[in-house]
Amino acid sequence: MSPAVMEHARGRIVTDAPQYRAVRVSLSYDPAADPQAVCFSFPSGKEWTFPREVLESGLNAPVRRGDVEIWPCGRVQAVVEFHTHDGVAVVQFDAKTLNRFLRHTYAVAATSPAPPAATPRPEPAQAPAAAPAAPPTPA
Fold first, then answer.
1. pLDDT per residue as tens digits for the range 90-120
2. Cα angle for residues 38, 69, 71 (degrees, 5° grid)
3. Angle in degrees, CA 112, 117, 120, rounded to 5
4. Secondary structure element (H or E) that encloses residue 25, with its range
5. In sequence order, which residues have a C-beta less than 8 Å from that of residue 36 and are 6 or more positions away?
6. Rounded Cα–Cα distance for residues 86 and 16 (Å)
7. Which residue in 68, 71, 73, 111 has a CA-CA distance of 20 to 30 Å to 95?
8. How far is Cα 69 from Cα 22, in angstroms, rounded to an integer?
9. Cβ pair 66, 77 in contact under 8 A
10. Residue 2 burial by CB count (10 A; 0-12/13-18/19+): exposed, middle or buried?
């Protein structure tokens, strides 16, 4: 099944070079797979899946969860760091692009059926409690 929301964003790889390199990133959200997660996919095939709340919070204040760190950069940009064993990739996005993606994920989540609730396990059968013994009668 394909993701419920699939959008493309242009990011800028941040390096110490005077020129930036643009990269096209696929942003996806699939509530059937995980209603709390978003995925960022790069042309190299590398993907990062992380909680949607991290993306939302990171647009307003710095936040890190696992190998992803996000923070606002000025009023119109957001920076996302992706940590690996080989190093760190720093990508800058237009915040409005990420906010639009988040709005679409929440709209889809609101219309998606809720995941099936866990079925309670039946209690093991118990023998009925014995009736209390009658008090002795006075003689």
1. 999 999 999 999 999 999 988 876 655 555 5
2. 100
3. 175
4. strand 21-29
5. 51, 52, 53
6. 18
7. 111
8. 19
9. no
10. exposed
**Nearest Cα to Cα of residue 40 among 115, 101, 104, 125:** 101
Kindly tell me if the per-residue pLDDT of 9 is higher than 60. yes
Q: Let me know if 130 is exposed, middle or buried by CB neighbors in 10 A (0-12, 13-18, 19+).
A: exposed
Q: How far is CA 19 from CA 12, 13, 129, in A?
A: 10, 10, 80
Question: Under a CB-based contact definition with an 8 Å cutoff, are residues 38 and 26 in contact?
Answer: no
Tokens of 80: 């996302």
10 Å CB burial of residue 75 (0-12, 13-18, 19+) is: exposed
What are the pLDDT digits (tens) for 46-56?
Answer: 999 999 999 99
Q: Which two tokens stand for residue 65?
A: 């969860």
Distance CA 94, CA 74 (A): 10
Closest CA to 104 of 1, 5, 2: 5
What is the identity of the amino acid at 77?
A: Q
